[in-house]
Input
Amino acid sequence: MTPSRRAHVTRVVALLDQWADAQGVSSHERARWRRAGWLHDALKDAPLESLRGVQDAEFRDASPKLWHGPAAAARATREGEQDAGVLAAVRYHTVGSATWDRVGHMLYLADHLEPGRPHDPRERASLVERVAAGGDEVEAVVTLVLTRRSVHTSADRMHPQTVAWLRTLGR
Output
């Protein structure tokens, strides 16, 4: 992992910790969020050729920019991670998933909203605070972020998981 990637991952995990504190989640759930945070970009800087061989049919035709999630989930499985929610969060963190549990939503938001991202820091900070509030605010911010990230992409160019997730949100 490059130093800049490690800094990003560290910020993602710190944001997940901040939200876990604010929402008063259990130590077990916090640990799940942290594992997903540390794993999600573990292979983002890996050579594409090393990632190509671990792609299954679901990601084989996807952009190579998306390969690191499934590859990181596969490696985490080989190294003993058994939590299906953590593995799904890591696998689909770039595209989203309609089948995610809470850890997937939290990772998706932390990856997008972490303070090192250059886009609109004031609005990003506002969204971070809304997520910290927990409850319905988390789902409202998930819907907002997913909708904004997909608004300029036609459905035929989106990953099927993203399309399915948008449908569950009525989009």
